[in-house]
Amino acid sequence: MSLRYVLGRLFFFFVVVWAGITLIFFLPRLSPDRDPVRERLGMMVANGGMNAESIELMAQAYEAKFGLNLPLWRQYVNYLSAMIRFDLGYSLAKFPTRVGDLIGQAVPWTIALLGTSTLIAFGLGTILGGLLAWPGAPRFLRFLLPPLFTFSSIPYYLLGMILIYVFAFRLKWFPLGGAQQVLTMPTVTLGYVIELLYHSILPALSIVLSSIGFWSLSMRGMMITVEGEDYVTLAEAKGLPNNRIFLAYAMRNALLPQTTALALSLGTILSGSLLVEIIFNYPGIGSVLFAAISGFDYFTIYGVVFFIVITIAFSTLVLDLIYPLLDPRIRYQKS
Fold first, then answer.
1. Which of 136, 174, 234, 280 could pair with 203 as two cysteines, CB 3.0-4.6 Å apart?
2. 295 Cβ contact partners less than 8 Å away, ≥ 6 residues apart
3. What is the number of domains present in the chain?
4. Quick check: pTM over 0.90?
5. At how many degrees (to 10) do helices 190-227 and 252-264 cross?
6. pLDDT tens across 34-52, in order?
7. 155 lies in which domain range?
8. Coil, helix or strand for 55?
9. Torsion angle (degrees, nearest 10) of CA 283, 284, 286, 289
10. How far is Cα 208 from Cα 124, in angstroms, rounded to an integer?
11. 145: domain CATH number?
């Protein structure tokens, strides 16, 4: 892998991030009638949280505090400067709590749920899809195709609601939601870890079941294509063991487009997982975003979307850079 290519990918990464955060800044401002501060204060008035007579003075104070009374270009420069320093500002709904603190508290929950579930679904789905397309695989695996087709067509959130109804509401095997019992204090004990795992089974299962069908069918299609390649035929003609042909010749070459599909679908995976967090009341990024949207907390929305843009762009960059490890034919340099 050449240094020029790495620098080019890094430049593209920063361009994508800049375009994303610029879009976040200008989209809400396309409507001249939207004022985030006055909308938030108006909600407080409607809920009896403050006196309507003082709303204008309070709005002016908030605008000065958040820099909303400055010209648009100055707001944009300040906004970019803050984003570079990862200063996401204050939450309107939970002032003076900073947006970075809200995201920092929610990120570990999302990483634990989304990261583990995605890796399990991708790994199992890839192996299962490869076996479904391989002639030497056990025949009973072919009976898994109908349920895999079914699970791949069900969205995360819908499958999550089905699991809640069956296993939490009807059978009462699992809790209806949350990451732990109410009023439970975090402790470094085995019992607390077991409680966290117990509460995460249903949300993780909804992500795994919905994803594993997609990855299995995707890998199956790629393996069928690879089986007709000359190098597989040559390996069979040499009399190589069936397991070696399957792993070193078929799976390895089919894994590259599968990894590409993972990079391209990161946005869909993340958005679907955030909906699962909302349904299960899981204290992750999805719950923070839902509360911000419900409370017209624009700065928190900006911060969460900025975090999502950074995450997807960085993950795509990492997957792109590890391609040569998956396929030695890729060198990213001129011959």
1. 280
2. 40, 43, 92, 93
3. 1
4. no
5. 120
6. 566 666 666 666 665 555 5
7. 108-295
8. helix
9. 80
10. 9
11. 1.10.3720.10
